[in-house]
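>> received
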Amino acid sequence: MKKAAIVFTGLLMSTMVLPTIAFAEETGAVYTSNGAVTFTANTDPTKPVDPLQPENPITPTDPTNPGENGEGGEAKPGTAGPLSIDFASSLQFGEQKITSTTEVYHAETQKYTTKDNEKTEGPNYVQVTDNRGKESGWTLKVKQNGQFKNANGKELTGAKIVLNNGHIVTNSSSAAPTGNEIITLVPASDDTSSENYGVESLVMSAENGQGAGTYLHAWGDSASAAESITLEVPGSTTKYATEYTTTFTWTLSEIPANEEPTT
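>> returned
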């Protein structure tokens, strides 16, 4: 009987457990406040960024400006915003031996210093930033200002630059512009009667709804940068033992105002 009593007592105690009921507290008051932010077009210059890691700013060098250490001086700053050309690589094809055969030379890679103060290299590139806050489109063109010439005005007749492996690099979430994978530069003539007068090549183009933020058109990547920009010089061209140079003009234009989208 003692055993039965113990069992009965346990059952009785289990029936005495009551459910817990929670009651919500009454709210005393409700109030709504506001949040707001206004953006304006940014007219400050934009720093060049890493063509391999576009989220990181860099300090590029200019290989045609040797600087004090001979490794290339700091590149000149880009244009002011809000629609700006932040940087364009200068092309150095090095010191070459004179030959009577057609030769192809490669431009040196772009050297730069990272945000961690490390010296490295990557593809040559041009960088554009659209901080207008309209997403209204733009075009970027390049012009080679005449053939390579030496200090005495002698031309490197028939020399031809080709930009290969072109592709867009960006960290922006706006729709990307389109770019030309291969660009063969035609030296522009100053002669108004020439078919090559003022000739330009299209590099990148952003339509309405594209191109807000920073975009790079890079020639090559970490593996192909050293082979992506070539200078072909015919074997028949007379070559003097001297330096030949040329310049390039990069032009960034807005699309016509009547084509801009409404906000």
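>> The first helix runs from residue 2 to 14.
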